[in-house]
Amino acid sequence: MAGTTGNQANVQRILNCNRPTTVPVTYANDEERRRVMKFEAAAEMQESPAPSAIYRDCSTNNGCRSATDITLNGHSYYASYGRTQFVSETFLRTLNDLVPLLTPAEQAHLRLNTQVRLPNGSMGTRADMAELAQRRATAAGLAYRRFRDRFGTGRTTAQATAAWNSLSAAQRANFTRDTGFGMTEFIDMLAYVPSGRARTENEGLNAFGSEAARRLLDGNGTTSFGDWLMWLYQSQDPYNFVSKRFLKSNLETIMNTPAIRARFVNNETVGTEAYRTRQRAIENDLAVRTAITHNRGSGGTSVNISVPQYVQDYANEFTRVAGRGDWRSLRCSDELGDTKGLQFNNLNLR
Predict the structure, then answer these.
(1) Fewer CB in 10 Å around end: N or C, the chain?
(2) Rounded to whole angstroms, how far apart are CA atoms 218 and 226?
(3) 3-class SS of residue 173
């Protein structure tokens, strides 16, 4: 079964929500499982490189990196990777928050417990490297904001070089120590000019943060960490595990926020049209809020949602634009029951 864009049946809409996996996610109930599965599919269709698809193979596509490159002075930086488009700082933060909760088997599946030599020369695990990489991504983002505020944006190479030379030796050394970057990346940071919906100020920040994390070298001076991070982005089950846990956490935060929690309660009589109408409103509200949080990192728990237009556009496409996320048209195959044929009226697609 497929959704339609114009006259073309080109976007998959029926999901295998019981798909076997080597790293399963535990859900509170079937309702939560279906929501997370649908949100992940909508995010994948919304954000992965065209054409829209579910269960995309990222193993041969640069980890399904963002189609929006931040290219400056001949150097390209990419903010996000993976089917649901994770910026590296968020991806690593999600992993680091998960580490204390994971079983040894889960850590092994994600290769987090692999022994590595750390940059300081001591032995540790890849989980330790993930912590260091998250700090580096965060530091790159802070430096990006700080130096652009101080020296301006859209700087020419000559102007940015003069700004670099105006820093003290200690300031330049701290920048390199914290981010792994040098004068070349500093110049590129000051050269960037946001343009349109895709190349926003935050997209630039995330691009430099992701590059800083990916470049982290281990204690042997090799790229083993960046190779592992790209393996995760290219993988199926390990990536799905992190992606679903991230969406599940966002959903839990939204539903448990005291100021809006009552919005997600259905007190109508089960089986009535009033119940179905109320439940549709609940599900749409949750989808919009999850989409906003997924895209922006915040804003989904506000009582009255107020976000930049590009975030609102994303949420609209996530929830109801055919050929994009179109969350409302998604169905789990196990919701269909023993149905003789699949018709639009059976699926309540409209």
Answers:
(1) C
(2) 9
(3) helix
